[in-house]
Amino acid sequence: MTEERMGLDEYFMQVAQLVGQRSTCLRRPVGAIVVKNKRILTTGYNGAPRNLRHCSEVGCIRERMGVNSGERHELCRGVHAEQNAIIQSAVFGVSVEGGTLYTTTFPCVLCSKLVINAGLVEIVYDEGYADDLSKELLAESGILLRHYSLPEK
């Protein structure tokens, strides 16, 4: 008896989930990868900027201030997973233009603007995120949005 081979969406979302396990965010661990031509180009998870202490070490500013999810992103010391995946493409000189972003959570408006300007053409996400402006900008951009949840095992 031969087991059926895992599909690409399942494979890439599992990788994004695994990458998210490196997150140091206390509120919402997120993982993201950029894929092009069925190849993983970059990965990212949310955490503090390079060589700075993580929220897991110093605590969550937004939590202490009682800031609701999806609001006042500028108060967070963390860099979002999607941002880190795009930043890695610049650091290593890899073009993500024309690629697909797999992310464990629908991108916020800040990440969506970066995704648009990076030239990504598709976002595959698992969990939703309440950010109407993000949804509006992505719809206007023409980026294909697909919801994909990993199958229950």
What proportion of the residues is helical, as a percent range? 25-40%
Secondary-structure element order, N to C: HEEHHHEHEHE
Count the helices. How many?
6
Are there runs of 5+ residues with pLDDT below 50, and where?
Answer: none
Shape: globular
Which sequence of strands runs across the widest sheet? 2-1-3-4-5
Class from helix and strand fractions: alpha/beta
Average pLDDT across residues? Answer: 93
**Terminal residue distance:** 19 Å
Would you kindly provide a written description of the structure presented here, covering whatever features stand out?
The chain is α/β, with parallel strands linked by helices. Helices cover 35% and strands 19% of the residues. It contains six helices and five strands, in the order αββαααβαβαβ. β1 (31-36) and β2 (39-45) form a beta hairpin. The radius of gyration is 15 Å and the shape is globular. The model has no long low-confidence stretch (mean pLDDT 93).
Give keywords.
153 residues; alpha/beta; 6 helices; 19% strand
